[in-house]
Every structure is written in structure tokens, then in C-alpha cells.
Amino acid sequence: MNLADYRRSARAWLQENVPADDRPGGDPIARAKEFMAKLHDAGYSGITWPRRWGGQGLTQAEERAFAAEARGFTLPTYVFSIGLGMTGPTLVDRGTDAQRERFVRPLLRGEEIWCQLFSEPGAGSDVASLQTRAERDGDHWIVNGQKVWTSVAHHADWGLLLARTDVEVPKHKGLTMFVVDMHHPGVTVRPLKDMTGRSNFNEVFFDDVPIPDEHRVGEVNDGWSVAVTTLLHERLSISAGVGMSGQKEDPTSLEALRRVVDTGDPLVRDELVELHIRSRALALFNQRLAQETEAGIFPGARGSAAKLLLAELTMFQADLATRLAGPEAVLGDSPLAHAISLAPAMSLGGGTNEIMRNIVGDRVLNLPPEPRVDKTVPFKDLKVGTQG
């Protein structure tokens, strides 16, 4: 099928199958799972993922074509965004064949929801300072600790958990990655309300939670390299908006703002042109990264640049919408007020803008690095939260 035919087929399927925004009652998670199963069975979930693990085995061209057609619809896929954009790709890249067989297809069909368990109260941007412990007990690991700012954890069936397994070595070298059952006794999830009034994040507690060694991802004490894989996928997926459709249109986008502001004012037009330029530049940058990935060139630290550009664009849009629509735009429970209130989160989640700039400076531009602590110091001898 050529690309034009693929787009027509995708458009027709979306028109027939995307549920209405305003269906009353029922369980929204159940509806989302039903939709994901239909999406997968129609060939539109995991478009570029390997066929062996439940994907479609197609190219970035088909994925971009489907994304372009889907922009006009509200896809109920947000609850799957962590699995589709972060944990699933990590399992495909770093998991065992048994893990891929068990987890990837159910993830793509929406049968199971995933979360990512990295950040802690004392380890946000400096993830390697985390203190959640996993101790070996025969063919299991026993986990104790706390995670925070965990998206969709209150709906999740499984989580990708980074835990400390050795305190006698430097902090980056004593970490191991696991798949954890979020329904197991000893896992407690508590939603956190943010400034939008909604609970998009959670704190998660682990009290003597056993994890079988077969759910370990990568080698013991090599969790940092697995985490880097996840973080690279995270930043690329955030910048590209993978699985994050929550409404038909972003109320701070150029198209939305043009309908509510005075486009006859040349100063307003100048602002909108600037928004168009920034939006287009990010879209082209993401397209370039996708094409390079398809050609076998992994974007590496440039994924951090894409995430930084999106965070800055999001804040620019929110600020512009507030200035053009007026202060009342931030009041009430309208889609615009929600988008403006949520905008600052983009400069924090997935790594702060400051951390992204450091990564781009160090690893893309090869600028002189900032002073760092001695990375040979064992974790047990470090002051908690020490950067480096």
C-alpha cells in the first residue's frame, strides 16, 4: 500500500472508530482499553515496532502519516502514553525475549497499563541519587522505598522500576532495573493534586514487595544504562507527543488562537507568526530525528534538545494565550485554563530545562562541563542529593 492509500485508510478508520468526546457515564479506562484493542487489531498501534513482538513492522513514514490524520481526533490514549513512549521501547531494546513475549503485545493492545518509577523525593533530576532499595533473596528481590511524580500509576498494572542494589559502589553503578507488579500487596499508590486541580501524578510506596529475578531488565548493577535508554525514549516521546492525545486540539495552538484573537492587529499577527515559526521548527526537528532513527542513527542526547524545545514552546504558547485572550483565560475549568495551568509541568517532567541544557551543552555541543563530585565515591559515603 502506498502512503497516500495508507493515509486514506487511516482517515476512514479513525472517522468510523474514534469515540465521541462527550459519551456520558461508564468507565473511561475500560473505554480506552477497548479503543486500544481495536487500534492494534486494525494495524495502527506499534506501527514501527517489530512484528515479532506484536508491532506492525512498518516505517516512520507510516507512523507520521497516521499521526497527521489523528490530529483531528480525540484519541483516548493518554493512559497508555508511558507504555507506548517509554517503558515499551525500553523492553524492546533491553528486555529479554521472554519479557518481550510477555509484556509488549498486551501493552500495544491496551490490555495492560504501564508507569515509570524513577523520581523520588530526594532524587528528581539527579535520578542516580535514588534510595529505593532492592535486596536479593534467592530468586527474588525485595523492594522498599518511595517514588513520586509517577504519571498514571493509579491506573497502572506494571511499572518499570529503578532501584539501588549496591551501596558499596558509586551511585551510577549500583542501580538495577526491574518490572514490578503494581497490584502486588505492599505497593501503595497515592494520587497528588496539581495546580490544575487534577491528579495527573502520584506517589508510590513499596513495603517488602518481592520481584522475581526474571523481571530484572538488564544486568545487576547495570540499571543506569537501561535508565538512559528509557530517558532517551522519554524525551523523544514527550517532544513528539506519543500517545498523549487528550483533546482534539491544543487550545493554545496557532489554529485555536487564530479563532479567538483579533488577527487584524499587526502586532497580534507578528506574535502568531512567531508561534508558527517555533512550532514548525520543532516539528521539522522531530521529523529529522525520526528519519535518522529509522536509518539506524540513534538521536542520543539530541532527544534532550527536542524535549527542551517543546518545553520552551509550551511556555511560550501559554504566555501568548494569556496575553492575547486576557487574564480571564486562566480562570475556571475551560480547556484553555487547564492548558495554561499545566504548561509549567513541561519544563519539569522528563528532566528540567536546566538539566536538558546541561546535557545538550556537554554531549551535543561539547562545551566544558560543570564541576562535579568525585564519581568514584561509594553511594553510602555520599550526602543524599549530591549532584554529579
From TrEMBL:
Cofactor(s) listed: FAD
Ranges for domain Acyl-CoA dehydrogenase/oxidase C-terminal: 221-365
Domain Acyl-CoA dehydrogenase/oxidase N-terminal: 6-111
Domain Acyl-CoA oxidase/dehydrogenase middle span(s) in chain numbering: 115-209
Domain of life: Bacteria
Pfam families: Acyl-CoA_dh_1 (PF00441), Acyl-CoA_dh_M (PF02770), Acyl-CoA_dh_N (PF02771)
Listed GO MF terms: flavin adenine dinucleotide binding; oxidoreductase activity, acting on the CH-CH group of donors
GO CC term, one of those recorded: plasma membrane
Gene3D superfamilies found in the cross-reference section: Acyl-CoA dehydrogenase/oxidase, N-terminal domain, Butyryl-CoA Dehydrogenase, subunit A, domain 2, Butyryl-CoA Dehydrogenase, subunit A, domain 3
UniProt entry tagged with the keyword Nucleotide-binding: no
The entry's keywords: FAD, Flavoprotein, Oxidoreductase
Transmembrane feature ranges: none
Protein family according to the UniProt entry: Belongs to the acyl-CoA dehydrogenase family.
Name of the protein: Alkylation response protein AidB-like acyl-CoA dehydrogenase
Annotated source species: Nonomuraea jabiensis
Classification of source organism: Bacteria, Bacillati, Actinomycetota, Actinomycetes, Streptosporangiales
